[in-house]
User: Fold this.
Amino acid sequence: MLFAHLEAVVNSQVLNHLANVRVSIADAVVPGIFRKSAAEASLGIGVQTTAPIVSIASNAVMAEPVGKQIQIGATRYVIGDADPDGTGLTVLTLEEVR
Assistant:
């Protein structure tokens, strides 16, 4: 089994097990791990944000996602940043659409 295939299978199982939301993105609904704005997310050494973030499978993220909208539950968000983590997951930094 190729490593990339094994990685995709494990990521899918982990996301399905740990997901706390379903994310509507690019005409698909995928599992995601959502952290609300009350939680801090590390953006690197000495930099943090209180913006909501969601982790989803990288293959679910459209090309050039910044500025595009997604939906979690009844709430719409604009993607402010997309950070692939190198393991097949992407962390999206979000801003709520008001």
